[in-house]
Design goal:
Elements: H1 17-32, E1 37-38, E2 44-46, H2 47-54, H3 60-64, E3 68-70, E4 76-79, H4 84-93, E5 103-112, E6 124-133, H5 138-155, E7 160-166, H6 170-184, H7 193-201, H8 212-219, H9 230-246, E8 250-252, E9 264-272, E10 280-286, H10 290-293, E11 301-307, H11 308-317, E12 330-334, H12 337-350, E13 356-358, H13 365-374, E14 379-383, H14 385-390, E15 392-397, E16 403-407, H15 411-416
Parallel strand pairs: 1-5, 7-8, 12-13, 12-14
Antiparallel strand pairs: 2-4, 3-4, 5-6, 6-11, 7-9, 9-10, 10-11, 14-15, 15-16
Helix pairs in contact: 1-5, 5-9
This protein binds adenosine monophosphate.
Length: about 425
């Protein structure tokens, strides 16, 4: 049988890594300029870190989605399904709350969820994650949203839509969940299986259902925004006012909720037009209380996570993906056996300045030039007995066909030249 990658994972081929690298480097620039610093937490954590952070009534779905195993000492470990819990565990473990606030942290790496695989939904995927810790007010929420927006815009994504909502304070959330239970329990039999389970565990999440029947049932009900307490309402208005002032377009999303128990007040997502049902490029929210549940001091926080694969798809769709890697400045073509070693030695020297490739066996000139062309080289440089005698290489500019003889010592300067 031919070997294949595990279902729901994929290989990022060399053609796609330029886009991948640009996403990372743009993140470094945009977030770095705002004082967000990179943190690299481990990929697996003790399972209790995730159990503490998802909360008792979090979706069973979330629990079931985790890849969990025992190590040889019998301790339960989990491959991270998201970054927040691990980043906050590190924040607490290293006493980072003593640093000037807000403490701003970003990360990049794989995350794992045992999900039903479909377009835009994988079992191993990658996230860029950002957390702003220690500031309670709406200004930092607006900054989190603005950073995400600016990052996606810097990448060249047009038509970004920020969906802004609020799940309220814990007491608002509790009251709203009670309201939903009262409204939906009599009609429970009309709900989808998932929503029936959610109604029991975390009723708000019924609003997230993609099932049309469920959507019809909740369409006439009050939304979390209709039932915000005064403090949460003022907070949301504050966030909106900053976004207005900064010219960041958003739509209020009255039914936007987040799956985990720890979220409160601000919730947001960013969607791109035209990449189908899985159009959420990123999502986030405020999670005051989470640091405390991981054993740290009371610390407000807000964060987001962006789906790397979905952003790369959206860039492709928008025609904004970067070009493939450039080919070598020069491709060396040895035309006899002695020149094979000479080409390898010259390549090593030139590589202190430029990208150089060469053929590994002797080539006829026509074949060597074709190799150079396929490699995407700017120049081909040929070497045979005649060139050896004269101490030169025959340098051919592939686009124009211009050809010159260049002394070996002048090759570096010659191939760095970009003819008009
Ligand atoms: P979440 O942590 O669920 O809020 O997800 C944040 C972002 O990660 C989403 O908006 C998606 O872009 C991405 N994402 C989440 N789950 C997956 C998955 N299974 N496969 C690919 N991307 C995902």
């Amino acid at each position: 049988m031919r070997s294949r990658a595990v279902k729901g994972t994929y290989d990022v081929l060399p053609e796609s890594t330029p886009a991948w690298r640009r996403l990372r480097s743009t993140t470094e620039t945009v977030l770095g300029r705002a004082g967000v610093r990179e943190i690299v937490p481990p990929i697996f954590e003790y399972s209790e870190i995730f159990d503490k952070s998802v909360g008792p009534s979090a979706d069973l779905v979330v629990q079931k989605e985790m890849y969990r195993f025992e190590d040889r000492g019998g301790r339960s470990l989990t491959l991270r399904p998201e970054f927040t819990a691990g980043v906050l565990r590190a924040y607490v473990e290293h006493g980072m709350h003593t640093r000037p606030t807000p403490v701003k942290l970003w990360s990049f790496g794989p995350a794992f969820r045992a999900e039903n695989v479909q377009r835009g939904r994988f079992r191993q995927f990658h996230q860029i994650n950002c957390e702003l810790l220690g500031a309670p007010g709406p200004l930092v929420d607006a900054e989190a949203i603005a950073l995400l927006h600016d990052l996606l815009q810097a990448l060249g994504l047009p038509d970004l839509v920020v969906a802004l909502g609020s799940v309220g304070d814990p007491e608002d959330r509790e009251a709203y969940n009670a309201y939903l239970r009262e409204a939906l329990e009599p009609r429970e039999h009309e709900l989808s299986d998932t929503s029936r389970e959610r109604l029991r565990l975390n009723p708000m999440r019924v609003l997230d259902s993609k099932d049309e029947g469920d959507q019809r049932l909740v369409a006439d009900l009050d939304t979390p925004l209709d039932r915000l307490g005064d403090a949460a309402r003022a907070h949301l208005d504050g966030v909106a006012a900053f976004l207005d002032a900064w010219g960041i377009a958003y739509e209020l999303a009255p039914s936007l909720v987040r799956g985990l128990d720890y979220y409160r007040r601000t919730a947001f997502e960013i969607h791109a037009q035209g990449i189908g049902a899985q159009s959420a490029l990123a999502g986030g929210g405020r999670y005051d209380g989470l640091v405390e549940s991981l054993g740290g001091p009371p610390t407000p926080g807000i964060g987001w996570a962006l789906g790397v694969e979905r952003v790369l798809d959206a860039l492709q769709e928008a025609g904004a993906a970067p070009a493939a890697d450039a080919g070598p400045a020069v491709f060396l073509v040895p035309m006899d056996a002695v020149a094979v070693g000479e080409a390898a030695a010259l390549a090593r020297r030139l590589r202190t300045d430029v990208h150089v490739e060469h053929a590994y066996t002797e080539r006829k000139p026509g074949k060597g030039l074709r190799d150079a062309d396929r490699a995407g080289a700017r120049y081909a440089a040929l070497r045979g007995a005649r060139e050896r005698e004269a101490g030169v290489w025959t340098l051919k500019h592939l686009a124009s066909g211009d050809q010159r003889e260049i002394p070996e010592a002048a090759m570096s300067a010659a191939v760095l030249e970009v003819p008009a």
